[in-house]
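As noted in the main text, all predictions were made from sequence alone. Below is one such record, for Major facilitator superfamily domain-containing 8-like.
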Amino acid sequence: MQFQFTSLRPWIFCAIALRFFNDGAEEFFIAPSAWYYIKSLGQTITFLGLVLMAFPVAALLTGSIVGRLADRFGNIKRIIIICFAMKSAAYIIYSIPVSAYFPLAGRLLSGLADGSAGVYYGQVILYTPEKYRARVFIILDGMFTLGSLFGPTVSVFLTFNVNILGWRIDAGNSPGIVLALIWFVLMLNALCFPQEFGTKKTTDEDDYGDDVLHTEDSSDPASYGSRSTVCLLFYLVFLGLFFSTTATFYVPLLAQEHFYLQFGHVKLLFLVSSMFSMVVFLLYYVAADYLHETHLLICSMLMQVCAISILTYFAFTWNSASGVDEGYMLMVYISLGMPYFSFALSCSLLSKVTDPKDAAFYQGTSFAALHSGFVVSRLIASFIFTKTMLLWFCLVLVLSWTFGVVWFIVEYRNLARPKNNS
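Prediction:
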């Protein structure tokens, strides 16, 4: 059996999808119990923030480096095995309840080992023709979203209360043990990977007949985008996750402190948003057959611009009476603001304007941009929760997106143009 949209071996593609599903679940395995765990080790909320921020900070440092190593030296299988082994070891360290510095070190090591994500995306590009890449990246992003739904639901039940040779495992560090086992299983699976992940690379120029996937890739450097085009895509990835993370941060605060909603309402808001995300992912997957990535990216940008407008409205009406009915505007805000569809689309466009030989480097850098958006958003948003500060923040968002839109218009022809056939 062979998938029509990629020449990756089917079981390899499923392994890649499972890896991104686990990525989505990973953060939501850790976050619900993190405060209980850190508090039991005698630390404060400030230290909890350090533990939660350690992963994205470390990940943004290694994405490009691991990608460059994969492009230059190959040994993709070995790199993935090492990264997965480090992930498993990281969560064993995280689960050692001796000092709060163990979970901090575990999260740092896990972030450093996250570079395999860009390497996987590089392999997807090498074995997937251009016209199918958007669909594949949307599938992988959809798996990440499914994982984010699965994580908080299952983590409630995967808790232990045992003592193994003095190593106490309870509700606080149980998620670390579960993740260590999951990454260990993924590492064992990676040991079975072949040296070639697919049957035909898109850079191959031989004629294999009509029953094999063909590509429109060109080895002519002139067919690739300029630095401005590449930087635009990194900027859109950064900006997309920056605002998405801001939305997930503000919704609980606005719901409980400003609109006086109950905790059950907050959970409902996130559930509706996640369901909306999955529906839009399905629509994007179907639309990718008929529309260019640039058109879908414009839709994603418009969604976030609408969400910024709603946040600005909240800022202007900050001192007005707010109740449950008005609070349900948050449902529209989080549904439009939380999803970051622009990442999958930007990665697909990035693969078309850069040399496939450097695919892992550029895709790893896109993950670094993703993590940097998360880090900067959390750092800034945590200090903004007054009317004046929120108005200034909305102004910065408007100016940032205006700059991005103007830049996108300038580069639109470079992004939308068809590649030359080789």
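The chain has two domains: 10-192, 227-416. Residues 205-219 have pLDDT under 50 and may be disordered. These features were considered when defining construct boundaries for the mutagenesis experiments described in Section 2.9.
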